[in-house]
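Milestone M4 deliverable, item 7.
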Amino acid sequence: MVIDQEIIKITFLFIFIYWLLVVGRRLWFSYQKQIEKNLIVLLKNQAEIIEGLSYYLLKNENRIDRNSWNIIFVDFGSDDETLSILLRLQQDGKISWPVYAITAKEKNIFLKKLAKDQPECSQYVLQLESQADGRKALRHLDKILANDKHAFELAQIQYIEHNS
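Output delivered:
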């Protein structure tokens, strides 16, 4: 009887130690998280969908963080309210991702500079211009955030190598 109690105590001790190791490992890796991938959303004249797109990304922020994504919004010469909507959302604290405004001519220079400044990150570019279908954009983003490799081809995502 005494031996059975000792075995039970030792078993519980091992289970407790295992639990501590699992929790400790999760905490350690959560603090060690680093951004591995940039999703650069190039926008031109997307005032109709940008707010919905932003809210969709906020709603899926846990998937973005879990998969080490960093979202970067870049307006490249919109004639509508796209940039002002993004800046308002950022100022109101609704989005925390960086927002840039560049000209269409600066687009390639910007992308190359970003890849050079962050060589440890993979750069993925989603370009939305003209009359983008909001549902289609969200469907592609959903697959991208789920790391569906085929989604990159379907959405015509441009991948920029680390050493570009």
